[in-house]
Structures are given as C-alpha cells and as structure tokens.
Predict the 3D structure of the following.
Amino acid sequence: MKMTKKEYEKYVARKSPKSPLWMNMLKAFVSGGAICSIGEGILNGYSSLLPKDSAGPATSITMVFIGALLTGLKIYDNLAKFAGAGTLVPITGFANSVAAPALEFKSEGIITGMSAKMFIIAGPVIVFGISTSVIYGIFYCLLK
C-alpha cells in the first residue's frame, strides 16, 4: 500500500488518540499549586521557628528531601503520572530528577551506577542555570 506524505499524515491523525489537553493542564496547575502550597506552609512553619534568613534555605532543603524520599518510595512517580508537568516545576521535581536515575542504575554499583547516572537529567539544568546566572551577573555588574 503506497501513500503520499499527506495521506499518511491524515491516516496518523485519524488513528492517534486525542489528548485531553485542558484536563492535563488543570491537573498540572492544581498539583503544582498544591506542592507549592505545601512548601509555603513549611516556609511559614520555619519562619516561626528560625531567623528569617534561615527559613528559606531550610524550606528548600526540606522540599528536596521530601521529593527524594517520595521518589524512593515510588510515590512521586505515581503522582507524576497523574499530575504531569505539575510535578516538574517545583523544587521537588528537581529532587526527583536526581533521585530517579540514581535508583534506576543502583544495580550497576555505587560509582558506575548511582553516582555516575545521578545527574544524567539534572546535570544539564544545573550547568545551564549556573552559566546563565554568571552571564546575568556579569551584565548586571557592567550595566550598573
């Protein structure tokens, strides 16, 4: 059966399942908002216990720990299947992107598996984030 490119595109469009775009966006918005609200609650709790300049870092550390813990317990993956992109944006998504490859490759050993593969996803994000902040800092100093 020979098809032109246009005929094939029409065929694929007919056979492909339709994506529930609006429902996916709603799930992502609500779940991402819920994660951020939990983080805000933790920040408020730390603000009442710690000096103001220590509450933010303590909250970040706690959220990374929660994200890594939930990844290790395989809860974060199930949440991500439901919530989609809503779990990627908060800091817990970063923790998941570091912990998940480490867990996946732990059978290859501590050095060649977990340690080598830990930053497979998060590594480029860290490198580009730091590089961008350095470039921004240079421009800021030159223009000030």
User: Anything to note?
Assistant: The chain has a mean pLDDT of 86. The CA atoms of residues 47 and 54 lie 8 Å apart. The longest helix spans residues 21-49.
